[in-house]
Amino acid sequence: HVQLVESGGGLVQPGGSLRLSCTASGYRYASYCMGWFRQGPGNEREGVASISTDGIPTYADSVKGRFVISKDSAKNTLYLQMSSLKPEDTAKYYCAADFLQYCTTTRLGYWGQGTQVTVS
């Protein structure tokens, strides 16, 4: 049973920072790509950042240079370090994974429950 649990969201002022965490269980961590997605009010879910099974990160243009995705394989945990946050980053952030090399699509098999990030 695959389970993804996010944490670390909250309220932050513009220009501030937050770090999101996603702890994974129930699957062979190294064989799955993982990614962060977000969905703001009235918007479709969009990709923010992802990391492939061989550790290659990809970022949405809107967050390049501000967000950093990383993973700690020993802890089965995915992180998203967010800096220079803007009001338009306000959204519910979701962690996702699948038995694929890349997680650059929203059509993934496993999702967490999401954590709210509000920049105001």
Can you characterise this structure?
Helix content is 0%, strand content 49%. The strands form 2 sheets. Strands 2, 4, 5, 6, 9, 10 and 11 form a 7-stranded mixed β-sheet that branches. Strands 1-3-8-7 form a 4-stranded antiparallel β-sheet, with no helix packed on it. With 120 residues, it is an all-beta fold. β4 (33-39) and β5 form a beta hairpin. The chain has no helices and 11 strands. It is globular, with a radius of gyration of 13 Å.
How many helical elements? 0
Oligomer: single chain
Q: How large is the share of residues in beta strands?
A: over 45%
User: Could you estimate the helical fraction of the residues in percent?
Assistant: under 10%
User: What is the structural class?
Assistant: mainly beta
* Number of E-state strands: 11
Gyration radius, in Å: 13 Å
Main sheet summary: 7 strands, mixed
Task: Give the averaged pLDDT, no decimals.
Answer: 94
Q: Helices and strands, in N-to-C order?
A: EEEEEEEEEEE
The rounded distance between the terminal residues' Cα atoms is 37 Å
Low-confidence stretches: none
General form: globular
